[in-house]
Specification:
Elements (H helix, E strand, L loop, with lengths): L1 E7 L2 E11 L2 E6 L4 E5 L3 E8 L11 E4 L3 E7 L6 E3 L6 E3 L3 H5 L4 H4 E7 L10 H14 L5 E5 L5 H11 E3 L4 E4 L12 H11 L7 E6 L7 E5 L3 E3 L8 E3 L6 E3 L3 E3 L11 E2 L7 E5 L6 H8 L4 E6 L10 H9 L3 E6 L12 H8 L3 E2 L5 H14 L5 H6 L21
Parallel strand pairs: 7-10, 7-11, 11-13, 13-14, 21-22, 22-23, 23-24
Antiparallel strand pairs: 1-2, 1-5, 2-3, 3-4, 6-10, 8-9, 12-20, 14-15, 15-18, 16-17, 18-19
Length: 409
């Protein structure tokens, strides 16, 4: 790794080189921000190789004096890290005092921070979802609430997987991430995790995501995991509740906006997932050969079709053969809002005749996770009926857009 000092116009800037590509130079500046320059516009004043330091191991720690016990399970990602801009090391943060600073959270709760893994979320696999679920089930037997610190990029996948795994939970399960690490002045981590811990102290018996409500400080949303989606690459309000308001808000106190499943006296946890499921984004150049390669050896495929749920007609025979061999095709939409409807146009009716199953207004990533869960847990002859059931709030009733649904376990 290379540390540099450069001149750009009338400014002297120092930082670590991230990459030099196509006459562009990107550095991590000493204040934590990534800056990209045209090579012709800068002058290097100093370039020096520095040794990359290995990540320090996160240790378990317990602090606080409150009566309610909250377990914070760290899996990695931005929220669980801070950057040493001199060496380039990314170090995990485990001390709640470093996370909360002047907050009174440690006087309200007893917080145990426990590492599960230390991975950026793009590296997590379905087997990791199961590991996280098992640890959540274990901790929920002795804590009053569970918070899972997770990278934001695939947090909706993991949180939705746990939503299906936990038919009943005796504690809230709240996922939390941040867009900016805790050492940066503009970090959203402190408010997000403070809100998550407060949400985890309630009787919310589901799996939710705690993230900034807007780009400004002061309000954090609790989003039902199976209606969540990361909508922006870098903004602090990156997560949105799709098609329905968030379940709750936190601005120093908690306000629930609708109904939710309450905590149970029992834990019903079923973790087996079938990972032989494809998630495919249809595009105009998708060929029959490409589609066949994508679904070969899979037990099901979730397709993100256009509009109401369409793909090119010449691909339908491929899907028909796949379904005739006992596998499943689920049709979702690339549109963020609205529902599939395969009865409107002739292409949709042909898809229905080929055995394609509509996902309605399910978020495509959630339909994908739900398919993996159902195929891993239930006889295949029950799949279609179970897929169409609203199990965890993943399906909306359009005539009741501002009310939560009655959930079936």
């Amino acid at each position: 790794m290379e540390r540099v000092v450069l001149r750009y116009k009338n400014s002297i800037i120092s930082g670590l080189v991230i990459n030099e590509l196509n006459d562009l130079v990107t550095i991590k500046s000493s204040n934590g921000y990534n800056l990209t320059f045209d090579r012709s516009e800068i002058e290097f004043l100093e370039r020096k190789n520095v040794e990359y330091q290995n990540q320090r191991k996160m240790e378990e720690i317990e602090k606080g004096s409150g009566s309610k016990k909250i377990s914070v399970l760290a899996t990695g990602g931005t929220i669980a890290s801070r950057v040493d801009y001199e060496t380039g090391a990314v170090s995990p943060v485990s001390d709640p005092e470093l996370i909360f600073g002047g907050s009174d959270i440690l006087s309200k709760f007893t917080i145990s921070v426990k590492p599960i893994m230390n991975q950026f979320s793009e590296n997590l696999r379905p087997s990791d979802w199961i590991t996280i679920g098992e640890r959540v089930a274990e901790e929920s037997r002795k804590a009053d609430g569970i918070v899972v610190a997770h990278g934001t990029d695939t947090m909706s996948y993991t949180a939705s997987a746990l939503a299906f795994m936990f038919e009943e939970s005796r504690t809230p399960i709240i996922f939390v991430g941040s867009q900016r690490s805790s050492d940066r002045p503009s970090s959203d981590s402190r408010e997000n995790i403070e809100a998550a811990i407060n949400f985890a102290s309630t009787d919310f018996g589901e799996v939710g995501i705690s993230m900034h409500r807007s780009t400004s400080d002061g309000m954090v949303s609790l989003i039902r995991s199976v209606r969540s989606r990361k909508m922006h690459t870098s903004r602090r309000d990156a997560f949105e509740s799709i098609g329905t308001p968030p379940v709750g808000l936190y601005d120093g106190s908690i306000r629930f906006l609708g109904d939710y499943r309450h905590v149970s006296d029992n834990i019903k946890f079923r973790s087996t997932m079938d990972d032989k499921v494809a998630l495919i984004y249809f595009h105009p150049a998708l060929s029959a050969d490409d589609l066949e390669n994508m679904i070969e050896g899979k037990h099901a495929a979730v397709i993100m079709g256009t509009g109401l749920g369409h793909i090119a007609r010449d691909l339908i025979p491929v899907l028909k053969r796949f379904v005739s061999n006992g596998s499943y095709i689920i049709m979702t939409s690339q549109c963020i809002y609205g529902s599939t409807n395969l009865n409107v146009y002739s292409t949709g009716r042909e898809l229905l005749s080929a055995g394609v199953i509509e996902a309605g207004d399910m978020v495509p990533e959630v339909a994908y996770v739900k398919t993996m869960y159902l195929l891993g847990q239930y006889p295949h002859e029950d799949f279609v009926d179970l897929f169409r059931k609203n199990m965890r709030g993943e399906i909306l009733e359009r005539d009741q857009p501002f009310e939560s649904l009655k959930l079936v376990g």
